[in-house]
């Protein structure tokens, strides 16, 4: 329960009245600069009043003047001199037979304007500090307001309404009821006639500073309060809402109800805390064995076996530590093989970097000085080998991706409790990295050899290869499809039956009209063809006048760099189409071979080797007696964390047992507090 209200509203007097002792700092301005968490504990009858501070363990105070001095001293230590504030609460426990068990937090008084050496934003600081405590949904708010003030303008009630607008967890405390002007009283608020709160209001009359200084005791103050409310007819019938004892009973009942309502969530929170501490201890592990080599060696061997087992389990999918929210372990390797490598290789276009002009140039160059009417083998093999060479980088990339995934699994497979052994953690990762890398080198060599094998022999006799005749037919079909249906023309004569032509002859016929390639220019010059070069007359031998000879034409020299014409002939287009078809068909065969062989090479040299031999490799590299002490040496903070976790686990279990007894205690307390007669029983 947190106490809020403006400065001089009487918060300190209410708390001292509940305790029956003067122990809080008094004076002008902000006296409470640190929150004070006050735990009241009902002691056995006849027991002395005893106070204890959490920051002074083992010291018990019976002089409450010393308690006030220690509060002032601790406030100065936490908040510093002057008027600065501190958020961290001072914890004070008071045991007395005159109190009811409850816990309250005394907060600084709400201030509107700074006074003296207070900072300009003191009001905002106090407000933020109060909100920090009362915003918690399990906090019961004690909004303290002078009875003579207008409740509508009460700072404490206004702040409470910000976090509890329905008034579900706010108790209104009306102080200084004896100072209300004649003819008025706090009775309307107590009856709920104005600004109603579900938990209601309680009016009190506490000893003032002057009365306390004059030597009036807590008993004197209690007697004066009883006389005041008993002598005012407007408070008749409101005994349950007037006086400090009524306030104590109300707060005790409110606290009991709040605890009862919170029991399910408290139990769940304790169960969560118990499970969290147990998980933390599992990570921290048991205390390390003694210093004997045998004990340390046994621990190290267990850790090595655990690591190798977790790694193998992650690869084959049997590890219970695999996550449920993402793909991990061996499934990531399968993704690399199937969705990254196989799909990526299938998407490659073997002729993506080759233009039609490149293919035509290769075909002309392959014809040499004589040219050719058929598709020569040389340009096909050159282009096919180029397409195969371009498959090597993605194949090597697949091995690199697999290597990276294995290293990722090596880190993910570390046992949870290995973090307490920093040297062992580093050694495990280094040994696993070295072992995985040792398999990566032969895997890469094998992949290079697989591509080299494909380059060594372009097997046009492969049963899946499309072949020259089929390639010509496919090329012609595609050209016909691009050309569209024939246009209307003169009636066609029925074709004369001809014997079927072989694919090679068909190719020759299709290419018969192609222009000469390679040495075309030279052949044209030497052929004496009138279409290629005009004739000229040579002088005759013998008598007679020779006719005038025509001047020989001037032949332009061939260009230094000769390229194919920008426009291809029909025959060249067919040649390009056929060549692309052949290269694509052979490329598809090689892709299928590598899609199957490369993952197998990676599995053999890298993955299976790790799964089979990692544990033996770790034992060989790390299980050495001279390294036992180094590898199983705990990190410095682990022992203290383990001890704290054990204490927290024990506390959570004890709290759970106490929580199970609370329903019966709350029932008994409710009977004692609400019975009207007899002494209230503590919660």
Helical percentage: 40-55%
- Strand line-up of the largest beta sheet: 3-4-2-5-1-6-7-8
CATH superfamily of the largest domain: P-loop containing nucleotide triphosphate hydrolases
Mean pLDDT score:
80
Low-confidence stretches: 492-532, 534-541, 673-683
Distance between the termini: 14 Å
Shape: elongated
The count of strands amounts to: 8
What is the gyration radius calculated from CA atoms?
Answer: 49 Å
Main sheet attributes: strand count, strand direction, barrel closure:
8 strands, mixed
CATH architecture of the largest domain: 3-Layer(aba) Sandwich
Count of structural domains? 3
Strand content: 5-15%
How do the SSEs run, as a string of H and E? EHEEHEEHEHEHEHHHHHHHHHHHHHHH
How large is the count of helical segments?
A: 20
Q: Could you list some keywords that capture this structure?
A:
6% strand; 8-stranded mixed beta sheet; elongated; alpha/beta; 3 domains; disordered C terminus; 683 residues
Provide a quick synopsis of the model.
With 683 residues, the protein is of the alpha/beta class. Helix content is 53%, strand content 6%.
Written overview of the protein:
By secondary structure, this protein is an alpha/beta fold. The protein folds into three domains: 2-261, Rossmann fold (3-Layer(aba) Sandwich); 306-468 and 580-631, Up-down Bundle (Four Helix Bundle (Hemerythrin (Met), subunit A)); 638-683. The protein is 53% helix and 6% strand. The protein is built from 20 helices and eight strands. The protein has helices at 11-19, 64-79, 122-134, 155-163, 187-190, 209-213, 218-230, 244-284, 293-316, 330-346, 356-367, 377-389, 392-412, 422-456, 468-483, 503-511, 520-527, 570-622, 628-631, 638-674; strands at 2-5, 36-42, 50-53, 90-96, 102-106, 141-146, 170-175, 201-203. It has an eight-stranded mixed β-sheet, sandwiched between helices. Helix 10 runs antiparallel to helix 13 (392-412) and helix 15 (468-483) crosses helix 16 (503-511). The radius of gyration is 49 Å and the shape is elongated. Residues 492-532, 534-541 and 673-683 have low confidence and may be disordered.
